[in-house]
Design brief:
417 residues, alpha+beta, Immunoglobulin-like, Sulfite Oxidase, Chain A, domain 2, five-stranded mixed β-sheet, 14% helix, globular, binds ligand MTE, binds cobalt (II) ion
């Protein structure tokens, strides 16, 4: 190590200590009863190990829940709720907080009665029980699932006040499952096989055409998320995982995969999940979820409450094309950009966590984040998206989000031109 690198290391270290010291000095008082008094929870014995066979968060975390927007859809049976991104940290979404999107409500399936059928252009049509599937080699991988409609309500302008609502149609968990390739190879593919049609066992019997090349590349037939069985909301006992591609293709309650030689052009890839451009032509088969990021703290549901001084900005970034190479943060609506610090695992097609720490002087902020992925794709502004695609779109809005933070620390959803 040279002199200059060791000095730099020392300076960074002392700056971090100084910052931590400033925070501690601001919040601790010697006569604070939380320090001087014996608290109620120390005056009696707590619950034993038989009280909570399945654990739940503290009652003080009761506000950390999925939420829906009543006016968005006609009925909760065919609706969506949102992940509370502003209440989370790190990169993993806890199972009970993963947003839900279903078109026919939650199917409650007895795994003993569940089957996965493979038919169509295969040598041998096959039917698997859950037990059969457990005898294939399995893999564990972390992926984000983002609905193509995430941020869709913001296409024409700033609307919903909170990153839970503007960006919460995403979750990021570790899946355990069997590579779909192994299952298709077991059935044997005909030479003209080119597409698959996965189908759900729920009342909506959802289907989507997926190119065979993707199916053979990195798709999983998953039965676990974050170590435990899939939740009913997420497709128990079996769901398709289509890494980096729009959530609609990740068929839940997976019961059948048909192999064909061309796409089926069903509802979910014609009237839905296509983007009508200004010239009347629709973009279709826009499967990949492009590079995107959002600042989760502060944000409208998570104002700055500590006043000016040392402030931690935090957020998430992701890309369906690979990893996140860099995230930049601006405090002044895009005039000056600073490099944020990515912390935690940087995995392809998975959420990344970033932080930007700074000394807030208490003046209003126009906060934005901008991500760049491993393909070199740069997250666009919303106006750049509108110039390219017009105003009719709902899906695939990966534009830069702006939060206006006032002197009192409150934040609101705005746009800068
Ligand atoms: N699969 C079935 N069988 N039925 C559905 O309604 N919704 C799709 C997809 N798979 C759906 C489905 C949509 S639009 C999305 S965004 C994701 O599942 C949502 O997955 P999640 O509920 O785990 O968040
Ligand atoms: Co969706």
């Amino acid at each position: 190590m040279t002199d200059s690198t060791s000095r730099r290391g020392f300076l960074t270290g002392s700056a971090a200590v100084a910052a931590a010291g400033a925070v501690a000095a601001g919040s601790a008082r010697a006569d604070d009863p939380a320090i001087t008094e014996v608290q109620p929870w120390a005056q009696m014995l707590g619950d034993g190990v038989d009280a909570r066979p399945y654990g739940h968060p503290s009652e003080h975390e009761a506000h950390v829940v999925r939420r829906h927007v009543a006016w968005l859809t006609a009925d909760p049976i065919s609706s969506v709720n949102f992940t509370p991104l502003h209440e989370l940290d790190g990169i993993i979404t806890p199972n009970g907080l993963c947003f839900e999107r279903h078109h026919g409500g939650i199917a409650e399936i007895d795994p003993a009665q569940h089957r996965l059928m493979i038919n169509g252009l295969v040598d041998t049509p096959l039917v698997f029980t859950m037990q059969d599937l457990m005898r294939f080699p399995r893999e564990n991988r972390v992926y984000f699932l983002e609905c193509a409609a995430n941020s869709g309500m913001e296409w024409r302008g700033a609307q919903l006040n909170g990153c839970q609502f503007t960006h919460g149609m995403i979750h990021n968990v570790v899946y355990t499952g069997v590579p779909l390739k192994y299952i298709l190879e077991e059935a044997g593919l005909k030479t003209n096989a080119a597409w698959i049609l996965p189908e759900g066992a729920d009342a909506s019997a959802m289907t989507r055409s997926v190119p065979l090349s993707k199916a053979m590349d990195d798709c999983l037939v998953a039965f676990r998320m974050n170590g435990e069985a899939l939740r009913p909301e997420q497709g128990y006992p079996l769901r398709l995982v289509v890494p980096g591609w729009e959530g609609n293709m990740w068929i839940k309650w997976l019961r059948r995969i048909e192999v064909g030689d061309e796409p089926w052009h069903h509802r979910e890839e014609t009237s839905k999940y296509t983007d009508l451009l200004e010239n009347g032509v629709a973009r279709r088969f826009t499967w990949e979820m492009d590079v995107k990021s959002v600042i989760t703290n502060p944000s409208p549901q998570a104002p700055i409450t500590h006043g000016k001084g040392f402030t931690v900005i935090s957020g998430v970034a992701w890309s369906g094309r690979g990893t996140i190479r860099e995230v930049h943060v601006t405090l002044d609506g895009g005039r000056n950009w600073q490099q944020a610090r990515i912390d935690g695992p940087s995995l392809p097609k998975s959420m990344h966590r970033f932080y930007y720490e700074f000394d807030w002087d208490g003046s209003p902020l126009l906060l934005q984040s901008r991500a760049i992925d491993s393909d070199g794709m740069i997250q666009p502004t919303k106006n750049e998206l509108r110039e390219a695609r017009g105003y009719n779109s709902i899906y695939h809005n990966n534009g830069i989000q702006t939060w206006h933070v006032r002197e009192n620390g409150e934040a609101e959803n705005v746009e800068v031109s």
